[in-house]
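It would be a great kindness if you could assist me with a short task in structural biology. The matter concerns a single protein, recorded as an amino acid sequence and a row of backbone structure tokens. Could you please explain, in whatever detail you think fit, how the structure tokens follow from the sequence? Thank you for your consideration; the sequence and its tokens are set out here:
___
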Amino acid sequence: MAKMTRVDKFLEKQKTKKKRKSIPDKLESEITKDIVDKLNSLPESNFFKLHMDIYNPTGEIDVHGCYKKRAVHFEMKRPSNSNGATPLQKEKIRNWIAAGAVSFVATSWEEIEPILALLDKDPMMPITEMQKYIY
């Protein structure tokens, strides 16, 4: 029997995963800082949080970076945020995807880790293939 990869383990886990009933109410900024710090501790990884001010366009994605020579951009949301990304943020995500970047909405490290596993497996995986796993 072949050894299961991180991606295979993740996909298998998703089949049996139950929704959590209670979610810690951490601030989005705390979640983002923890995730950016974790991402920057990985080899071949450089990420930063874009802080919103009057000089940045409205609806800009929260986190920008590069992992294994691949552009990665994602919008962080609190797990308790039932609205998700705004329509403008969704449009920005679609634009990044159209340009060839890996772009998505995340609420936790557990949602980001399998995407990194896909990039570990094949850093130049076509975005059309990768989107099958992201959404």
The first strand starts at residue 45 and ends at 49. Helices lie at 6-16, 28-40, 87-98, 109-121, 127-134. The CA atoms of residues 8 and 18 lie 18 Å apart. Confidence is low (pLDDT under 50) at residues 19-23.
